[in-house]
Design a protein that fits this description.
5-stranded antiparallel β-sheet, Neuraminidase, 4-stranded antiparallel β-sheet, 8% helix
């Protein structure tokens, strides 16, 4: 399409939005972007790890066949390892399968899972922070023997592996935090390493550092958009001693862009999570940031010119908020889930906003704080029908660490409470009215 035609269309859209704003505000009161009753309605929660064993660090994925697959680390009888269980649309959770296939002394941990277009599952994990390993399972098949992705001759620690798949060709992308030797010339203890494998190759590329001049890089997260571009985020130091959040993009041809700092954090920032809005193929990022009162969850979204929106505090609680995970629905609605501690108890919350809104909902409880419960590692994903699949782990004195699963759908009806945990209902009215034109028009104009 010619540029003139694009500008004409953009102008027409702008005029339409001005007209829509005038109609909506003429005698109709404030225009709200977030529906007052929107929320996720949850099915009863399910404890899916072995009842008498400790299980932690869960992750979840779902394929086009709608089979939900969950991984975690922990004990199963006398064996410790990375385990997986799957749930078909009609059926029960399968007996846990040993993904790591290692002895207890290897201590496999921190597994992440993804499912490709052929419904094959792919998992990465580390073992005592000495190696990054990868295994795969075809649809209906068994797990392959793990292969090592990190350098075999490295004497440095490796940790926090993450995996993403290319939706166009099932290419596999893996990143992790790689220990490096600290010297006066290179005053850093870790970098972000990256490798990838095409779906038609049996070999992985040689790992490379992708975190540029940032120091003590860790907490990587990655996602691939519909064009095949890879988006990477991590936390690290640069010029000062306060950890910041950084971003880098690799296009579909394999070319890396520059390292970009997303926001300036007053306190140490950690645990960034990245998702992508495939309408514009732009990244959205949430992270935890130290504040005077504890920690809060902050959010920023990317513009097409590479700039980032001002960081927004979306948790706003007098507590410690941590471990965010992002999600973008098909209609562009952005959701962030996190753990929130209140008076010694921890709960699981999420907040949401629409694509072109600047206003976030108030935090909505999924698991209400209570019973001196500790909650960790929430992760969620969408299926092809828009259903939400969420996992997390819980622990309290006298109980085993347990992996939980919940399925949610968008709706307005209050969910049914479970005997063990109480899900929260849909959000209340938004706290403020968003600036419609400020949110919509700059983004539309940035696309061209």
């Amino acid at each position: 399409m010619k540029r003139g035609a694009i500008l004409t269309i953009t102008a027409a859209v702008a005029l339409f939005l001005f007209g829509a704003l005038a109609v909506a505000t003429a005698g109709a009161g404030p225009l709200r972007i977030n529906e007052d009753t929107w929320g996720l309605v949850w099915d009863p929660f399910q404890a899916i790890s072995p009842a008498n064993d400790d299980s932690d660090h869960p992750d979840v994925a779902v394929g086009g066949d709608m089979i939900v697959q969950v991984t975690w680390e922990g004990w199963h009888g006398d064996a410790f390892g990375v385990w997986s269980s799957e749930h078909p649309p009609a059926g029960a959770w399968s007996t846990p399968a040993n993904v790591s296939q290692m002895g207890v002394e290897d201590f496999p941990e921190f597994a992440r899972i993804a499912v490709d277009g052929n419904n094959a599952a792919h998992v990465v994990f580390d073992n005592v922070q000495m190696a990054i390993l990868y295994g795969a399972k075809p649809a209906g098949g068994s797990w392959s023997a793990p292969v090592q992705l990190s350098p075999a001759d490295s004497q440095q620690l490796v940790f926090q592996p993450v995996i993403a798949l290319n939706p166009a060709n099932n290419g596999r992308y893996v990143a992790w935090a790689q220990g490096v030797e600290y010297t006066e010339q290179n005053p850093s203890q870790s970098a972000i390493d990256f490798t990838w494998q095409s779906a038609v190759s049996s070999t992985w590329t040689t790992p490379t550092h992708i975190s540029g001049e940032t120091r003590d890089a860790m907490d990587p997260d990655i996602v691939v958009d519909s064009s095949g571009a890879l988006h990477v985020v991590w936390s690290a130091l640069l010029t000062g001693d306060t950890a910041q959040i950084f971003y880098r993009r690799r296009d579909a041809a394999g070319n890396w862009g520059a390292v970009t700092q997303i926001a300036t954090c007053a306190g140490n920032c950690e645990a960034p999570s990245v998702s992508v809005d495939n309408l514009f193929q732009l990244a959205v990022v949430a992270w935890a940031e130290e504040t005077v009162d504890g920690k809060e969850i902050f959010f920023s979204s990317q513009y097409s010119d590479g700039l980032w929106s001002p960081a927004a505090n979306i948790s706003n609680t007098p507590a410690i908020s941590r471990s965010p995970d992002t999600l973008v629905m098909a209609d562009g609605r952005i959701l962030v889930v996190w753990v929130d501690s209140q008076a010694g108890d921890e709960g699981l919350y999420y907040a949401h906003r629409q694509r072109f809104s600047e206003t976030w909902s108030s935090p909505i409880a999924i698991v209400v704080p209570g019973a001196e419960r500790n909650i960790s590692y929430p992760h969620w994903i969408l299926d092809d029908t828009g259903g939400t699949h969420l996992v997390w782990s819980t622990w309290k004195d006298g109980e085993h660490v347990t992996v939980w699963y919940a399925h949610g759908v968008a709706g307005a009806a209050p969910p049914t409470a479970t005997p063990t945990m109480t899900p929260g209902g849909p959000t209340a009215t938004p706290t403020s009215t968003p600036a419609l034109l400020r949110a919509w028009l700059p983004l539309i104009l940035r696309q061209h």
